[in-house]
Recover the amino acids of this structure.
């Protein structure tokens, strides 16, 4: 029986679709398995109603109930363990009620592994037009049709409960960069207040609720935010409001300052980050989860990650190169297609270019994560990072 | 050994790619296996250096060395046996010499089954700008960068020999509709002259060369064209210049008139056709091969073929419909995704919509072809057609 369940979870559901899993029977768990000797890096395990996975892990971004160009089977073959989805997008289209009626997000998009949904906070502040923020919530215009909408913390939770992801996020204000101390203080207090309302509205029911630490680029406000969220109590803690335009140094120092303020026995999630080097740095600081559009968006723009640096597929030097993107890479793309062909597809603006490039970049991230986990397990993370840096030093094909 | 070859042909090549197959060792064959009792429908077999397939068959169009959004493995899973490629597109980008240097089209695009290339005639007349036609050939401007090019029959063959497809086409002028008798006569004579030059330039070398019958909508010119091409002698004969804007009745009468003028022991290829009903009608007249962008282009535009008629996925009625496009359909899309999800992907303009829709439509065409072959085998084609029509009568979801 357990064996059957495992097989089912390892591939896409087939018509007639099985009934929706009752999340209520399950409970979210995080097990901290070890902390690396020389760094703060952590090896953990997250258990959800839709299966378990090790941390650190990277969460590919599926904004509109799809990782662009990928089927579920593609993602499973690549080794993706959890994906994110975007409440803001799904609330507007097709509507969370429709997805609920269809048995939730997992059934809707035929993804039988864990899903995380964000609260929409980031999109409200980056995509929403004519945005008006008040103590009660956010009024905004849809980027699709200009229609007016209002979202408050209670609704952010209600939407995410309808969608039925395994991990859901409280509503926050993502502070733009740069921002004054006064603005950041006011906004961070609002995020705490909203987090409290989210927690009150949250019914549990097998889902996990994460709080989001804000505080801009001010250490004392990060501390205040982390403390207040800990007091409310969440299943996990995210660090938000980074990778919004600040320098890598500032981002790194904020992660490094904030991570130790978070409870040891809950997962720590660095939102919207990042490049491979950012992941490595943040893992060292004890971050467990990441999500970012970089591997997928860069793939669609023809920028490919390899162990020797970045490769820009449109460059003319690839036009007669029979090698795969990276020799020895086990991804579907590298096993079947040459750089010359990928360059042709990209310059001819063919859809297949986006798909094959996405497969490669996601596989690269999955392999990097596997390498990091293994290094933590063996207590040789610093050595791993040194080797990783040496291999790619100065060889970017930009 | 033969078993190994079969396995290799059944999936994409893996890096390091095996050497290019020497077409020169093989020879193209067509075996007419039977003619159906009540109609002129034929069951045949084509043997090429890259494997064999039964006829009638449908050839999906891969303009730029890719069936848009499909990997080779997708096509193999769907049951596609042969694809076409476009000389005009590949001559301009990436260039036939580059593809030759990379070991030919099969290796370049990692498609190990038969390929047909057209001569570029159709594209020269539909895409080329500032086109000037003379007895010697065609001068045109690239639709990509406006650069000036000249192609004559000898070069059309040279390009296709570089690409290395299993079946190549002679250069023709695709006559626009409507056209006067005088224009059509002059143009058809030119196509014959070009066909003669193509035959002279053709080195064989394991490839098959097909001639293209023109003659516009005039029976006597179709007869003249067919007779002249037969005199030159080709491995197969195409009917060109149809599906260019004429009514279905005129097209049908031209196919019906022209097909019997072609040699019994060579394959007959109706170019650029068509809708499922066109295929059925033309099979009855003894046509063996078809190619058309309809299944793939319509898929990208959200128009899906089913046994009960066409389904327009963007229609609101599908927004909460949990059923697959067609219950009982064995395609990957129908086995894994609901109409509701496909509608969402389409309205959200997601890349995955194009891919999942393309899988379904190509699978539909493959199944239709299988049904036609089986009906010919059993001598009950008219019964098959009657049932096929009854099932879809008046139920289009347009």
């Amino acid at each position: 029986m357990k064996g059957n369940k495992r097989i089912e979870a390892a591939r896409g559901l087939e018509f007639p679709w099985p009934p929706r899993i009752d999340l209520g029977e399950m409970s979210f768990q995080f097990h901290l398995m070890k902390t690396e000797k020389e760094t703060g890096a952590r090896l953990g395990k997250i258990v959800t109603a839709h299966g378990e996975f090790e941390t650190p892990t990277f969460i590919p971004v599926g904004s509109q109930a799809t990782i662009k160009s990928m089927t579920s089977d593609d993602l499973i073959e690549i080794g993706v363990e959890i994906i994110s989805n975007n409440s803001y997008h799904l609330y507007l289209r097709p509507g969370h009620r429709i997805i609920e009626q269809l048995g939730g997000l997992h059934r809707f998009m035929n993804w039988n592994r864990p899903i995380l949904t964000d609260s929409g906070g980031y999109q409200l502040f980056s995509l929403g037009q004519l945005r008006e923020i008040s103590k009660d919530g956010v009024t905004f215009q849809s980027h699709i049709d200009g229609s007016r909408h209002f979202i408050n913390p209670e609704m952010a939770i209600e939407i995410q409960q309808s969608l039925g992801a395994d991990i859901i996020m409280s509503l926050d204000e993502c502070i733009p960069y740069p921002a004054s101390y006064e603005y950041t203080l006011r906004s961070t207090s609002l995020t705490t207040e909203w987090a409290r309302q989210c927690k009150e509205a949250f019914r549990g029911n097998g889902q996990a609720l994460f709080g989001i630490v804000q505080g801009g680029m001010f250490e004392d406000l990060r501390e205040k935010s982390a403390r207040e969220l800990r007091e409310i109590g969440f299943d996990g803690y995210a660090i938000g409001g980074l990778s919004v335009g600040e320098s890598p140094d500032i981002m790194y120092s904020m992660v490094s300052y904030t991570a130790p303020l978070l409870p040891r026995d809950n997962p720590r999630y660095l939102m919207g980050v990042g490049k491979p080097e950012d992941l490595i740095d943040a893992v060292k600081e004890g971050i467990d989860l990441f999500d970012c559009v970089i591997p997928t968006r860069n793939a669609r723009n023809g920028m490919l990650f390899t162990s020797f640096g970045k490769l820009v597929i449109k460059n003319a030097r690839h036009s007669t190169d029979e090698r795969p993107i990276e020799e020895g890479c086990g991804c579907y793309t590298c096993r079947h297609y040459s750089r010359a062909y990928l360059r042709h597809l990209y310059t001819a603006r063919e859809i297949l270019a986006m798909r094959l490039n996405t497969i490669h970049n996601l596989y690269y991230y999955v392999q990097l994560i596997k390498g990091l986990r293994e290094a933590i397990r063996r207590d040789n993370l610093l050595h791993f990072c040194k080797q990783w840096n040496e291999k790619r030093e100065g060889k970017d094909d930009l």
